[in-house]
Amino acid sequence: MTLAAESAYKCCVQILFIVVLLSVAVPQKWFTNSKLFWDECTRLPCDAPVSLGERLAYCLTLGFYVQAVPMLFLWETKRKDRLEVFAHHIATIVLIAYSYYLNLTRVGVMVLVCHEANDIFMEAAKMLKYADCKQATERMLIVFVVSWFATRVFIYPLYIIRSTLFESKVRAATLGVSMEPHYTILNGFLIFLYLLHIYWSYLIVRIAVRQYTHGDAGDIREEEDGDGKTSSVSEVPSDVSISRLPANAS
């Protein structure tokens, strides 16, 4: 399968995900008030009701990331950060399953909203790059970079991790219940994902700088051999730049 087809497939999947996730989350009060993540919890695992929409969102995303693990090695283009993407997928699967076990689907849906939204722009930028639409690629790259830093670097820690670290403890203290070991495990995985975001943010900044200073950034994530040449395994042109944005880093 070509790189363009790979990106088109992922873009369609991400559009489906974000439509479902926003349809579930936007009508809820906890979409804009993180304290309501914990409002109906009297213990952990939480005993708050779970809507059909939240279950559907979980089934769709869990199914996708389970299949994404073998596909990373069997189908997708070989990339330098493949192990980081593999770790990201495993952490995402664990978080989806673990948050469902804890009945913290409100937190889970918001994590997914932050992760899936900007992937649409990432895959769109790649497709425009493959189509040799330079100006459109640069504009879409700007949209992607802005959305990436807005959702994954700022909203994710300031809205979600802040709530799981602090607002959850306030609620637990009010009820006089213990959250361990779930508190440490859940926040450990959430923070691990955030560290991966920081790493990919560094790569994105490099790509953006090279795109706008040289007009066509080199591929910084494709597999290379000892002489710094693109590996024949991936058979990807060494001048691809946008194509090396984090692959499915959701």
What can you tell me about this protein's structure?
The protein has 250 residues and is mostly helical. Helices cover 66% and strands 0% of the residues. The protein contains seven helices and no strands. The model is unreliable at 217-244 (pLDDT under 50).
SSE inventory with pairings:
Elements: H1 3-25, H2 52-74, H3 82-101, H4 105-116, H5 119-130, H6 134-175, H7 182-214
Helix pairs in contact: 1-2, 1-4, 1-5, 2-3, 2-4, 3-7, 4-6, 5-6, 6-7
Descriptive labels:
single chain; 66% helix; 250 residues; mainly alpha; 0% strand
Please tell me the overall pLDDT: 83
Distance between the termini: 21 Å
What shape does the CA trace take?
A: elongated
Total DSSP E strands? 0
Task: Work out the radius of gyration.
Answer: 19 Å
Main beta-sheet annotation: none
Helix proportion range: 55-70%
Number of helices: 7
Give the oligomer, counting copies of the same chain as homo and different chains as hetero.
Answer: single chain
The sequence of SSEs as H and E is HHHHHHH
Given helix and strand content, the structural type is mainly alpha
**Low-pLDDT sequence parts:** 217-244
Roughly what fraction of the amino acids lie in strands? Answer: under 5%
